[in-house]
């Protein structure tokens, strides 16, 4: 399936079923695959950070996350099929992993958070095989040890939640040495899965207003991202369109 250009970023356009089917094919064939998610904040970073933009443009799959990207895509004549935000898509992938007996490893968030996320996922997705978990805060010196630990467990799915663009750059730098088939950069998903950060009420998610809930929940941390960031996002879209 050809990628679609949203300015200077190349995205995949698929729905949940198509995305899961593509990843299952790659799991079955042991084809190493990188998966990233693009929201308005990520798009803004990609306009200033060439290395990050180059990495996501080389991704096997770059999936759209949020109403901003869906609106922005229309400016380039692209009608995205479905919102594929990681917080909803990854549980579906893990359900598939449970059914097919694939294994997963969680790398991300603060101390103990990935372990709590693993426990909650085991409780909510019967049969899920999470073989390991570790905090995403580590030094460059610890990198070799972490890669070695992951490779000893050889998970089919490696979920990396270290924040944008750190997680994408880490995956890019370590991809060839990692013994994992599907490697995803997932932002705050591990925090959500652990319950440390609550999801927005369902009605807000259906209205595609989850970003408003995040802003209300963490105003000091999120106001620049959502208030100033949204203005910048449409500025960059217009600039790229022109």
Automatic annotation (TrEMBL):
Keywords: Glycosyltransferase, Transferase. The keyword Glycosyltransferase applies. The keyword Oxidoreductase does not apply. GO terms for molecular function: hexosyltransferase activity. It comes from the Bacteria. It holds the Pfam family Glyco_tran_WecG. This is Glycosyltransferase. It comes from Pradoshia eiseniae.
């Amino acid at each position: 399936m050809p990628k679609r250009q949203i300015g200077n970023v190349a995205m995949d356009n698929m729905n949940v079923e198509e995305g899961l089917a593509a990843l299952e094919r790659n799991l079955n064939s042991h084809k190493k695959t990188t998966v990233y998610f693009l929201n308005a904040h990520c798009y803004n970073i990609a306009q200033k950070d060439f290395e990050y933009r180059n990495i996501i443009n080389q991704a096997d799959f770059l999936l759209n996350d949020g109403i901003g990207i869906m609106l922005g895509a229309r400016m380039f004549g692209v009608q995205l099929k479905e919102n594929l935000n990681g917080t909803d898509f990854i549980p579906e992938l893990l359900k598939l992993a449970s059914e097919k007996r694939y294994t997963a490893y969680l790398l991300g968030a603060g101390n103990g958070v990935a372990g709590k996320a693993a426990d909650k996922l085991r409780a909510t997705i019967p049969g899920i095989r999470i073989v390991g978990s570790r905090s995403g805060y580590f030094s460059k010196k610890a990198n070799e040890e972490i890669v070695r630990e992951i490779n000893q467990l050889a998970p089919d799915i490696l979920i990396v939640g270290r924040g944008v663009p750190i997680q994408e750059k880490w995956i890019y730098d370590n991809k060839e040495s990692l013994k994992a088939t599907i490697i995803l950069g997932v932002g705050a998903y591990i925090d959500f899965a652990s319950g440390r950060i609550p999801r927005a009420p369902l009605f807000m998610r259906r209205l595609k207003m989850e970003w408003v809930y995040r802003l209300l929940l963490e105003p000091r941390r999120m106001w620049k991202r959502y208030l100033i960031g949204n203005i910048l996002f449409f500025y960059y879209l217009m600039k790229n369109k022109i």
